[in-house]
Specification:
The chain is α+β, with helices and mostly antiparallel strands. The chain contains three helices and two strands, in the order αβαβα. β1, α2 and β2 form a beta-alpha-beta unit.
Length: 83
């Protein structure tokens, strides 16, 4: 489904913020997937920002289980810049 989605990102109109921890391997290699998403958006000349955080815990996916630093200030700054 991801490959199909990335074939046509023309409908994406808003700036995109991609966040991932370098050891996010929950169910898949999210670092690689996020890189592919970024590439597709950049190729379509979309506004995209990628932040890769240092490894977090035993699986970096857990970084996003609750609102916390380090990513929350990045989300707020992105929203301030783009809204």
């Amino acid at each position: 489904a991801m490959e199909e989605t990335l074939e046509d990102v023309r409908p994406v109109a808003a700036p995109v913020l991609l966040l991932v921890a370098e050891n996010d391997l929950f169910q898949a290699d999210h670092v690689t997937i996020i890189g592919e998403v970024e590439e597709a958006l950049l190729a379509a000349q979309k506004a995209v920002e990628l932040i890769v955080y240092p490894a977090f815990g035993s699986d970096g996916h857990e970084l996003f289980f609750e609102v916390r630093e380090p990513y929350w200030s990045d989300v707020l700054a992105f929203l301030e810049r783009t809204l």
